[in-house]
Amino acid sequence: MKKLFFLFFLSSFLLTGCALFPEEEGEFDEFAKCLNSTGAKMYGTEWCGHCKDQKERFGISFQHVDYIDCDKTKQVCTSAGIKGYPTWIIDGEAYPGARQLSELAELSGCELE
Predict the structure, then answer these.
(1) Which of 1-5, 29-33, 81-85 shows the lowest mean pLDDT across its residues?
(2) Which tens digit of pLDDT belongs to each residue from 89-104?
(3) Least confident of 12-16, 53-57, 68-72, 85-89
(4) Residue 55 in contact with residue 99, Cβ under 8 Å?
(5) Edge-to-edge strands, sheet with 67-69
(6) Domain ranges of the chain
């Protein structure tokens, strides 16, 4: 009986997408969502140290950034003219290198709280 209950609980947990645990909110969620809504994109790779630094500036809020991994989608990055990492594309302009969040706010028009 205990095994049956455990299996039922486990399957319910997995099917609900772990809904027992609320999604953690980040300090810059609204800012990251705004960047995403304006079409801003960050191109990078997982091995790039500057990309890692850029992600860390957002913290958990980076999950809301439109991030393109150029190791996984090389053709997309080549077509976008990406030559280095990270590169932000904001309003059709390329901005290579890691950027301060305040600079991304200025470039995108998104409010940084």
Answers:
(1) 1-5
(2) 999 999 999 999 999 9
(3) 12-16
(4) no
(5) 67-69, 41-44, 87-90, 93-96
(6) 26-108
> Distance of CA 13 to CAs 3, 20, 23, 45, 59, Å?
15, 7, 15, 32, 27
* CATH 3.10.450.70 describes domain 26-108: no
Kindly report the backbone phi and psi dihedral angles of residue 75, in degrees, each rounded to the nearest multiple of 5, phi listed first.
-65, -40
Nearest by Cα to 87 from 44, 39, 32, 56? 44
CA pseudo-torsion sign 71, 75, 78, 82: negative
pLDDT at 2: 54
Residue 10 CA, distance from chain mean position: 29
Extended beta strands in the chain, E state: 41-44, 67-69, 87-90, 93-96
